[in-house]
Queue: 2 jobs
Job 1
Amino acid sequence: MVNMNDTQKMLRAIINGQSSFRQEVSSKIDKLDKKLEGRIDGLESRIDQVDKNLTERMDKIGKQLAYLEDDTPTREEYDHLEERVDKIEQKVTPIL
């Protein structure tokens, strides 16, 4: 039969093992946290920069598209333009 003193020794060994395991895992997590701390901050700033560049690029493309749309004739203007070209061709042809 196991006496109380042996039980206490076994319990103490288990607790000590768990405690040392906890300290080891905690120190490794702290080291990993220190390693990643600068990288995560740097990554956030790079993502912000990419987002800013992308937004500026999309704004520029949007403006170009709006200007292009303003410069293009509507369907009615295009149809009328064809009539005007035909009239000019008729005027120029007899001269030649």
Note: The first helix runs from residue 4 to 71.
Job 2
Amino acid sequence: MDNKITLYRPPHFCNEVILVDGTGRAGKSKLHQVLSAFDGVELPALSLLLPERLSFLYYHNLIDKDAAKALIRSELQFKLFNEMMCRNVNFKFGDYSGVFGNANPWRYLKRMFLKDANVALQRIKEERTILQIMVHDTLGFPNLFFDTYKDKVYFLEMVNHPIDLINSKYRKKHDERWDTPLSFPLTMKKNGKLVPWWNLYDNKNEYFTLSSMDRTIWSTYKKLEHIRKEYQKLSPEQKKQVLWIPLEKMMVDPWTYIAKIEKLINRKPTKYMKKNLKKYNFPDTMERIIKSRKVKEELIRNKASPPYTALMEEMITEYETTDWDALNQL
């Protein structure tokens, strides 16, 4: 007798899921601020520990595939139901992911008085509410979401100019604090030593020999390289579910990307969009962005060694010569 347990979670809601993705410091929080003013789009869920981690485990066959699909569906359905009931919702002032960082906080305040769970379930189905989740580097491990949600998952892939990206990651010490209590990436044991998950790319055992700046450039390059390779493996139909959004272009011309998002998710911006853009300092100017970038570039070049300066320049060429709009097959 086969006693194998097969986990399965039915798609009770059948609602779409938005993944606000990109490597660290790509500008995902800015995109959340735009999305919060679309009709039916919920507060951003910063649920790194299941969606992001499960996609990594699923990709590397480190978890039973049926179990991973059941878990991700259970977790996201539970999160959506809680948001509709205003349960476990973030009320912290000044937090972009919270109620008061949302374009329309009143809808969550009203939900505090919603006592009947059946009413919440009915509204989820009738309003076709959409859950948005912040994840990191997940387009590099996309199989779980496409296998589970098929055509009901959207990747909004944030990309940032490599100089801005490297500078921000360096200042935030991304490659120095991955094993601290305030940082939560997956870690592994390699030759008895604790290492971050991106050490998988370290075939030459060079990561821990590098300076802080060189290490930041190296990890940024390796993550972006992997994301590009996995994107190329997607089917034509799956690529239509990916919207590439360069941060600087969205900051300078937000309405162009609002129109692209509207077409992708089939939801209209609400009357709160203009107010929300102003609140979060949209639009910016390219002149200010470039002026700021020159200062950052000088810092990086002063601290990076020649081989990693060359690696940064390769990333810059890749970013500046890519026609991001041509990738968006909407």
Note: The two ends are 50 Å apart (CA to CA).
